[in-house]
Amino acid sequence: MMEVLLTQLSFDGMIDSLDTAVGGPHKAFLLQNVYPQDPEINGGLVGTPGFQLTEDNQLGSAGKRTTQRTYQYTQLDGTEFTVGFVGGKMYTYSWGGQAWTEKTLSGAGVVLSETAKVFCVTFNNKLIVNPNDGTNEMFSWDGSSFVSLTESAPIFGQPVVYYAKLFGIKWAERTTIQWSEENSETTGYESSGFNNSWTLGQTDQETLHALHATNEALYYFRARSIGEISGAVTANFSTDGVRDGVSETVGTLSPAAVVSHEKNIYFLSADGRPHMIRPGLGVTPLWVHAQQTIANIPRAQLSKAVALDDVTTRHILFGLAESGASNPTFHLAYRYGAFDQNAVAVFAGIWRGFTFQSYDMVKNASLEPTIIHGSTDGYLYDHGRPLGTLWDHELKAGTVAIEHVVVGTTLGHDIRVNKIYDRLDLSFRAQSNMTGLTFSLATPNATTASTAFTVVSGNAVWDDAIWDTDTWAVEGLEAHSTLGLNSDGRWARPKIVHQAAGERFGLNGWQLGAYVDGDDPAAK
Q: What is the separation, in whole angstroms, between the first and last Cα of the chain?
């Protein structure tokens, strides 16, 4: 019998379709806690970084531990503040001291809810904080003092800056937007003789759920539609502004899950489906390859969903709650184009293993972009970087090794011809030894028992190896492993699992050796 070699190499994304005929040499059925590092040059998969406690201390107070937001406030003179909000309290973080310090809210009207999601924006060299509770107005902080923005009505969701004016959705009139005067957060709106508001109800009177501003336009989102306003914000903006429809069928219920990368806007629909807006090209659905993953997400929790532009790994991350959860528990990762900004983002994997309420990008002590997430019990965690040293989930309750899972899409699919699978060759991106590896093969006939094995990085890596003892690497990080198989079926789906504390995972691909067994009418 002639051997057939079935290869999957340089995975560039995943398709979770249950149709066994769907697949390809570069697509996986599941990429969990891994991602394609350099798909533009056919690079391999690597594991997601881990995280650690920012401080071994609960923030908030007893019974009031909701993590509401973290934010990086950068002043024009370069002064940096990493700010956190937990249980109705505000904190700043010392990266050198690894400690949070409470900033007592002071001044009339400077109040935070203990549970509502907080929204922030930098405007006029100040931090603008929206309590987002329907009662309290926004307030500003300049690094030392607070001022309540009493001229503004309470607003809903994310305040945005457009044409040097501060915009927000009025909480009491959710079809109306209001705005400040230019570079002045304390004046304008609908107070003291100003009429800086616009009721967007000409063709649709549905509630507004989010605003998002770019240099070109101000976007407004309803549950099932999106519009944009372009043009300068003049005294007659409500008549001079040019309105245009973006979508009549898709909108959002997730005010914290609208984010930009360069000129493109990414958001979750009212059904929890990821989309992107490419200016001039309309709305593009991104959810098709993730249909099974998002099929059972609880719609009731979409208001808690978050989105983040993770510039460290070049992904848009959508944080969602899984079925039965009341807070986000996993991320859909979408890889945006490195060279073509108009390219459609690719579904690159699922990142999971912890529950979070906030998930934000800040800057560390070296001013490098760094993710901080907040747990449900008042702890804040900072995440590692792709070339860093954090490779576990270092939870307060104890360190948990990250579970990396790669499941291939169907190889060798045939409607009637059976094949015998006797060998698997794997190519690993071995940046460290990998223990705790297991492999199994699923076919229409059965799933093999998991085979445990270890991959040793045979070549030394600078700063890790011993001079004159270790074998120095060639120009590349690759380790080969071979496993014997005894399985058969009309198609096969390989699966690799890795979970070991402190280890980095990497996989280039695999090759399955098969022999045609002939036409078997009784084959499953």
A: 21
